[in-house]
Amino acid sequence: MRRLIPLALPLALAGLVLAGCAVTAQPATTLSSASPSASAASSIESSVQTTSDIDSTIPEAAAELLAANADGTVVNDDEWSIADAETITLAGSTASSDSAGVSIDGSTVTITAAGVYQLSGTLDGNVVVAAPDDAQVILVLDDATIASTSGAAIQVVTADDVAINLAAGSTNTVTAASSADADASAAIYADSDLTVSGSGALTVTDTGNDGISSTDDLAIIGGTITVDAADDALRGKDSLVVKDGTLTLTAGGDALKSDQTDDATQGYVWIAGGTIDATATDDGIDAWTDAVITGGTVTLATQDDGIHSEIALAIAGGDVTVAESNEGIESADIRIAGGTTHVTSSDDSVNGSGSTSTSEGGMGGGMQDTGETVTISGGTLVIDAEGDGLDSNGSIEMTGGDVTVYGPTGQGNGALDSNGGITVTGGTLVAIGSTGMAESPDESSAQGWLAATASGSAGSTVQITDAGGTVVADYTATKAFGSVVFSSTAITDGQAYTVTVDGAATSVTAGVAVAGGMGMGGGGMGGGRP
Fold this sequence. Notes:
Largest sheet: 23 strands, mixed
Structural class: mainly beta
Distance between the termini: 22 Å
Strand content: over 45%
Radius of gyration: 26 Å
Oligomer: single chain
Shape: elongated
Helix content: under 10%
């Protein structure tokens, strides 16, 4: 199992871990007379920075995951100069350039040396980077259209780090029909670290496989980028990081993906900023190890999981909307620590499942606690579920934040469902759903809670008042329901409260589960589903 820094790690220490030394490539040992000047090459070669340069205010629930993962590589725009660029003019079935670092063979343009290259015009062919293994190559697309009918339109065969910069005010198009079993299985394919940056626009279409793919780190730090791919839209094998930009993604597979399986510190997706609108046949975000969201605006509509990771998943900032999904958010270790998250699902919305203990021989189903965790310490989470709302094959712990669960309506699921119990010590929790598998917090929870059998329909008003008639909470249901669970600092165990639905009042005692169906903590039926 991969070692993770303990969740209790002080944030200051996490910041020190995250602020590790940047990894920089070494300058090439020789430069041809027609290559960029020595000073320019030195600037290019020192341009690599790592994703460890993050905001130290990131909640530790996410910061410790970032600290446990390897740095990804980013080439920033301010560390190279367009004044050093060599020009490549694209002209239909051929191209021209005065650079000694460029060779042209029919409709194939090959870049063989480190440097900055500005591409303009239209090419019915391929741009290939076959530079030394230690080279850094900057491709500035300035109103460039590249269309390939045989493999990747832009392919990095060899280089250390490559950046595709979208020139200000430019509109660029890259189109290909790559094959799934080809060496380069994407319209833009890099056998190196790849950064996409700038303020221009880029449209990428691949009718055969992925849109933009890197076998190492893929970083998106700018640009207005539209990708329509037969399979994955954006894929960074070692890591995928989005720090800025406006992304519109349509994928026959996953929209954003990292799938390195050989290194437990890689295979992660980190959304730190930008605006993402993704539609996917499979997952919206799919990470082999961790998925971390600390900023940006993310809207996902998927036919499978909205966000899926195998090890851990943290939302600590930003605005996340899973507008459509089978299961909304799924991982063995789910942490909601900040931001605003809305999840709509046809099955479970937030699902703690698939832990290492399960894969190593745990029961993985039924009533067994198989070690998964759902931890909520901050932020706002709103759930609209047809399956279980807040669900864990292990435990659920809430120490802060604001959680509202609407649904399910079916009796075979519950708004709250755990195999290992629910503890609440802070925050505000309301779960309005069906009665069949309803569960309430454990009786040992430090914060007061109440549970009531009270039914209503979409549009019904649910009001909770204390013994003195003071309104404690007021909600409007979005679908039919038969049970209400509520916890906040305003609730005191042992005290009497009234839950009123459309004028019909039900009296309850806080901290007491409803007999026969409301909660494992109080001896009721609750929980029990994987």
